[in-house]
Design a protein that fits this description.
Blueprint: E1 8-13, H1 20-32, E2 37-42, H2 50-60, E3 67-72, E4 83-88, E5 93-98, H3 104-109, E6 113-118, H4 134-147, H5 152-155, E7 157-158, E8 173-175, E9 178-186, E10 192-197, H6 198-205, E11 211-216, E12 219-226, E13 238-241, E14 246-250, H7 256-260, E15 267-272
Parallel strand pairs: 1-2, 1-3, 3-5, 12-13
Antiparallel strand pairs: 4-5, 4-6, 6-7, 8-9, 9-10, 9-15, 10-14, 11-12, 11-15, 13-14
Length: 286
């Protein structure tokens, strides 16, 4: 496959918005590939939270332009984990990052890996006083080289894409006639995103329900499924089809996370409901 040039690098990390690490990586890209535009996906991922980074990447991938994607959430920094580059979408993009499960979901959403390499060609790396800043010393210079037309196999040794670590994002499973799922993300508005969609419910039950029974811990609620927060009604908890197509436990203009006292990692069971009653409103805290 012939090499191509790229004019965009999209950048995701847990460095923090005010960190000099972000500026350093972008400075290297500016120096080595001055024609390239850098898009900041997010840098406020919680430190070491590979799953949150994987979800952020998955949300962004469908909307990113062609180019290179640098992902740096790397709890194994300086260790023996691999830094890899994975070609996607027939060469329209290349994802660079640690082989720790971070990139798996994003790669899958882009149609899967075409080719993959481990970034072991040191002639494309920066000389480094230490081994713990791969985004600076490996990812940025390799991204710049690829933007300039370097062929993928010139920056690393080919590996079997099937050897890459799988996604760290859980998938729902059938259980007791329902779907056992999990809260995978709490957004800044307190919406509790589940790892399940209406299509998942349809696949299990043969039709898309408009009301379901939702259980977590010692709680059981009969909830409507809606397409907007305002459809829930004041104080009423429900499931909203969010902007990614997943279901979120939500309240209209209030934080479901705060009112329910639950968060990421909480297990939730969704089962069919024949009830047509009104959902019991949540008493909002002062």
């Amino acid at each position: 496959m012939s090499s191509r040039r790229y004019d965009t690098v999209s950048f995701l990390s847990d460095f923090g918005q005010g960190s000099d690490s972000v500026g350093i990586v972008k400075s290297i890209l500016r120096d080595l590939a001055p024609e390239v535009v850098v898009i900041d996906i997010a840098h406020d991922i919680a430190p070491f939270d590979v799953r949150a980074a994987s979800l952020a990447l998955a949300r962004a991938v469908p909307y990113l332009p062609e180019g290179i994607i640098i992902t740096s959430v790397d709890p194994g920094a300086g260790g023996d984990r691999r830094i890899v580059a994975v070609e996607i979408a027939g060469g329209a993009g290349i994802v660079i990052g640690p082989d720790n499960g971070l990139i798996a979901t994003g790669v899958a959403l882009a149609g899967g890996a075409d080719r993959a390499v481990v970034l072991d060609r040191e002639e494309h790396h920066l000389a480094s006083p230490g081994a713990t800043f791969a985004a600076r010393d490996v990812m940025a210079p390799v991204a710049a080289a690829l933007c300039g037309g370097a062929e993928l196999f010139s920056v690393g040794t080919e590996i079997d894409a099937a050897s890459l670590l799988p996604s760290v994002v859980p998938i729902p499973r059938e259980e007791n006639g329902g779907l056992a799922c999990e809260i995978i993300w709490v957004d800044r508005f307190g919406n509790l995103q589940l790892n399940v969609s209406v299509d998942d419910l349809s696949d299990v039950w043969g039709k898309a329900p408009d009301r379901v029974r939702v259980s977590w811990a010692d709680n059981v609620r009969n909830l409507r499924i809606t397409t907007s927060f305002s459809d829930l009604g004041a104080g009423a908890l429900g499931l909203v089809v969010d902007s990614t197509g997943l279901l979120s436990l939500s309240l209209d203009r209030a934080s479901a996370a705060r009112e329910l006292g639950i968060g990421e990692g909480e297990g939730v069971l969704i089962t069919p409901s024949d009830e047509q009653g009104v959902t019991v409103p949540v008493s909002l805290r002062a």
